[in-house]
Amino acid sequence: MSYTLETKYFNSFWIKNIITGNPFAYEQGSATPPQQDFTPMLSFWPGIPWLGLTAGYPAFPTAIPTGRGNLQTQPNTGSNNPQGFQNFYLEETRIKGGFNNPQLSLGVRAYIVNENKSSTNRKHSLIYSGLLNTRTGFNQTNVFSIADPIIKDLDPINGSIQRLYTEDTNLNVFQENKVSKVLINKNAIYSGDQGSQDGNNNFLGQPVGYLGEYGISRNPESFAFYGYRKYFSDRDRASIVRLSRDGITEISSYGMKDFFRDTLSTISDDFTRQEISKEFTALIPSPIGVQSDFTLQDFNENFGKQIELGASLELFNGSSNIATGSIVTKVEDLGTTIKISIEPDYGFGPEGSFSKALFVTYARGKVYGAWDAHQSAYTLSLQTKPRTISTEPSTFSTLGFDESILGWTSFYSYKPNTMGSLKNKFYSFIDSEIYQHYDESPNTRGKFYGAETPAESFVDFIFNPNPSVVKNFQTISYEGSNGWEVDSYTSDFQGFDRIRDNSGVVVGNELQFRDSTKSIKSYVEGQYDSAGSMFPATLTNPIFRIGFDRKENYYVANLVSDSEPRPGEVIYGNQVSGVKGYLVNVRMSIDSSTDAGGVKELFSVSSKFVVSSMPW
Question: What angle is formed at CA 591 by the lines to CA 586 and CA 597, rounded to 5 degrees?
Fold first, then answer.
């Protein structure tokens, strides 16, 4: 096909072929096919609409007037070209076709495509898009131009980037083995006589590492912040770390170094297989034609909460696995049944075609961290197995760090999926529910996660004044609320003794000797009357106390020894007052009768002692 193009006033035109390849298809054996048999290949140019096989593209006359320019075509007169159908279309690029008028924009153009289509995983690199200006509506957040320097590489020897945290004009980057700050919209230039100053403007400037070889390992879930302090765990170095204005501090060394060294070493990156199975007596498939949902009956309350999204579903008929590979996409608690949605679809067949459903997920140990806004403490939960697999006390340790005393103040008995603070309230999440801590509503204190009875609350102390001197502890006293009692009062470990006969042969078990006292009852539960009735309902007779007594608003009690007799002792057991040793371990808890569910405060605890009269 040939054509002649005549222009005036130096106009510019685009000439586009709107049909690619052979525009017509014929029925085999047809010399002159009808027009409805034409099957042009669809164009990738959106300027002219495709009207279907019958109409094809819009027909144009042989000569198409285009303002100040005309396009003359020499049509193909063959029988396979319908009258007036043209393969070319004309557009002006200047407004009104006027000489030197503003030229029309070429519109959105795709950036060059990297011919190397294989994916690369750059775990140690940062990449940023174009700008976003909500005031002007300018949005290039989906633009990643390889013509611009939009990638910032960090040292790959420090491992992958696990966490990013922006702070003022810096970006904190937490790698596995290093913590750095990347300057934003500036770069640092160092000179010997002028120090540091801002230099070349870059969106992501020079990375500056914090002093200390600490990272976040592979536990970004341990990160928490408050004010200018950032907390996280470095499991590879058995440390819990705080990043603040004075740099990095290893807060796990504040009296808990051995604990974190031993506990963090038990948390592995290996995934554990979790199986949740259900033997059911009735299966209700979804309506015919919709095989992505099914309902389980006769389940216990916690079964549905333990099924995680993304779990793999395996179905059994007896011991035979008849279906596997479907993924759980939704779990709905309908009160008496559970509705489970899966993909891909599976034809369940009639009721009773299988008798067991097995849900399988894989999870690894976690180190969850959060800032407790109520207690002003960093709360940490070390979990060798996630909650969805086990809630046994041996699989987790939850504890808190208090900045005001620079120490780890308490262990907690709950194992959350995650934690967080909002508007001075602290929340933890388990399964599919959220719980508010420190709720002071009536009859809720100490009742964690829907429990009907309060959890046991206790405080452990270690009395160790003048460590190198053997002491005889005689009394214990505390300042605080009524209702505290002493569960145990035990001296330090003093070695093992074996029972031997006259010939030196061991004839008895190995014994571990420690001095201890009897439990000390609270002020209320330790009272008794002259008739010997403990905790009398009426106070008609004179009242005596076997536990704590109150003197000048201070609760005091004598220590009555309950130690086992040792070989060679002349006076032993309850004939001796107090406890002998270098140090003692004390556990105090609240009783069950004094202001049940109320607030129990404990301000200070002390013990009176004398130096033991040693014979040497």
Answer: 125
% of the chain exceeding 90 in pLDDT: 21
User: Could you write out the three-class secondary structure of 82-118?
Assistant: CCCCCCEEEEECEHHHCCCCCECCCCCCCCCCCCCCC
Asked whether the beta carbons of 612 and 471 are under 8 A apart, the reply is yes
Give the pairing of strands 132-133 and 125-127: unpaired
Q: How far is CA 485 from CA 106, 178, 380, 572, in A?
A: 84, 48, 29, 25
CA 221, CA 233: separation in Å to the nearest integer?
A: 9
The kind and range of the H/E element at 304 are: helix 303-306
Average pLDDT rounded to a whole number, residues 366-370: 95
Q: Hey, what amino acid is at 266?
A: T
Per-residue pLDDT tens digits for 385-415 = 888 778 888 899 999 999 999 999 889 888 9
165 close to 172: Cβ distance less than 8 angstroms: yes
* pLDDT category of residue 79 using cuts at 50, 70 and 90: very low
pLDDT tens across 546-566, in order?
A: 889 888 888 999 888 887 776
- Supply 519's token pair: 């439990």
First-to-last C-alpha distance (Å) of the chain: 123
Tokens encoding 414: 């709950």
CB proximity list for 450: less than 8 A, separation 6 or greater: none
Query: How do beta strands 170-175 and 602-611 pair?
Result: unpaired
- For residue 284 the two structure tokens come to 């209700």
Q: Which residues contact 430 (CB under 8 A, 6 or more apart)?
A: 387, 414, 415, 416, 417, 449
Residue 548 structure tokens:
């704590």
Q: What is the pairing mode between strands 407-412 and 418-422?
A: unpaired
In contact, 28 and 6? CB cutoff 8 Å? no
* DSSP codes of every residue in 149-178: --EEEPPGGG--EEEEEEETTEEEEEESS-
Q: Give Cα 594 to chain centroid, integer Å.
A: 39
Interatomic CA distance for residues 30 and 79, integer angstroms:
12
Task: Quickly tell me which residue has 């009357």 as its tokens.
Answer: 529
pLDDT (average), residues 123-132: 88
The two tokens of residue 238 are: 């058995």
CB 130 within 8 A of CB 104: no
Q: Where are the domains of the chain?
A: 1-109, 125-209, 272-363, 460-611
In terms of average pLDDT, the best of 28-42, 197-211, 247-261, 557-571 is 247-261
Nearest Cα neighbor of 454 from 445, 463, 465, 441 is: 445
Q: Which CATH class is domain 272-363?
A: mainly beta
This prediction has a pTM of: 0.64
Alpha-carbon gap, residue 419 to 426, rounded angstroms: 8
Structure tokens at 367: 């180190």
Q: Distance between CA 531 and CA 240 in Å, rounded?
A: 57
Residue 603 to residue 479: CA distance in whole angstroms: 5
